[in-house]
Amino acid sequence: WWRHVEPAAKDPILGVTEAFLADSHPDKVNVGVGAYRDDDGKPVVLECVREAERRITGNMNMEYLPMGGSVSMIHETLKLAYGEDSDLIKDKRIAAVQALSGTGACRLFADFQKRFSPDPQICIPVPTWSNHHNIWRDARVPQKTFHYYHPDSRGLDFSAMMDDIKNAPNGSFFLLHACAHNPTGVDPTEEQWKEISQQFKVKGHFPFFDMAYQGFASGDPERDAKSIRIFLEDGHLIGCAQSYAKNMGLYGQRIGCLSVVCEDEKQAVAVKSQLQQLARPMYSNPPVHGALIVSTILGDQNLKQLWLEEVKGMANRIIGMRTALRDNLENLGSPLSWEHITKQIGMFCYSGMTPEQVDLLTKQYHIYMTRNGRISMAGVTTGNVGYLANAIHQVTK
Ligand code: LMR
């Protein structure tokens, strides 16, 4: 039956983790996958999560969740994206379902798009998270790219991006990173978001926000939702993928949410029912444990406060490592500019290193990262930053 099946290409991000795990060198460093580590390089379970687990233990059953997932988790999650006092929530205009983290939310939306608006393409920024391409490809939605990153300035190519938005066929779908763009760490300013939103209005484009890093851009989830709020103020109907992998450290729990803003409650009921119908033949209903952790934390003022402090703590450790990496490179006498390490935000630094330089880092120094030159700053520690800086200096000088 399966003689014609060739091995699949390795995933450009998760394949790096596999290679790292297979390496037995004592000095190996993993700055590939975007997964937060403490300053000893260890995975972190947040205190608010530990406390939520204590409260849940003994108090839960293992029943199915509804097809759309946990109602209380969804309610709390929508408040994070749309605002505590959002009229859209009050007016029940948002169709929302629990999703298998950000990936699952994007995939569900892509399938929904294909089923109910099959003609328009999805416009995806260059570069983007590699899995975005897989998700919309497997949903059989035609893809087009739009300019985003400017390699020379290592910042946003705003004018080219605006041109692409203007030139795309009216009513195109656009994938936007709500904050802490992956892989570049470059976000539009508030003023630029306003211009983008205005242009979307003129063209009738549909904005789909992937918000995988809420809290990691500024340390404050509320501030990181600014892009979305700007679009909402302008009256856009948006879609949004949310994930608790990074900001609650719930990577393996696969917990997130997909929401679609509708014209009224009736439409939201219809859209939600269709999202559930898409989920049913794929995984029937989502897992219960992560949803309980999230609703326990966000439903309790004290635990929510603790969470906000812990998110800030993670974001601040990363900011500290950005400064340390840049200082180390400059102290080594690197003739190159490393200003972008501290200018970029979120979990990643888009270093500008070439795939060949990355290969050398891996071969000679056992440093693992994606070949696009992205460094996961969350894997940089006081203990490895000197080693990392020296290796980068050696391969780039
Ligand atoms: C990443 O970009 O490293 C993360 O989003 C993890 C993943 O699933 O790719």
Automatic annotation (TrEMBL):
Presence of keyword S-adenosyl-L-methionine: no
Extra remark: In eukaryotes there are cytoplasmic, mitochondrial and chloroplastic isozymes.
Alphabetically ordered keywords of this record: Aminotransferase, Pyridoxal phosphate, Transferase
Catalytic activity: L-aspartate + 2-oxoglutarate = oxaloacetate + L-glutamate
GO biological process, one term: amino acid metabolic process
PANTHER family per record: ASPARTATE AMINOTRANSFERASE, ASPARTATE AMINOTRANSFERASE, MITOCHONDRIAL
InterPro entries xref list: Aminotransferase_I/II_large (IPR004839), Asp_trans (IPR000796), NHTrfase_class1_PyrdxlP-BS (IPR004838), PyrdxlP-dep_Trfase (IPR015424), PyrdxlP-dep_Trfase_major (IPR015421), PyrdxlP-dep_Trfase_small (IPR015422)
Source organism (scientific name): Genlisea aurea
Cofactor needs: pyridoxal 5'-phosphate
Coiled coil feature spans: none
Keyword hit for Magnesium: no
Annotated Aminotransferase class I/classII large domain residues: 27-392
Subunit structure: Homodimer.
Pfam families: Aminotran_1_2
Name of the protein in question: Aspartate aminotransferase
Upper classification of the organism: Eukaryota, Viridiplantae, Streptophyta, Embryophyta, Tracheophyta
Enzyme nomenclature, EC number: 2.6.1.1
GO MF terms held by the record: L-aspartate:2-oxoglutarate aminotransferase activity; pyridoxal phosphate binding
Similarity comment: Belongs to the class-I pyridoxal-phosphate-dependent aminotransferase family.
Organism superkingdom: Eukaryota
GO-annotated cellular components: mitochondrion
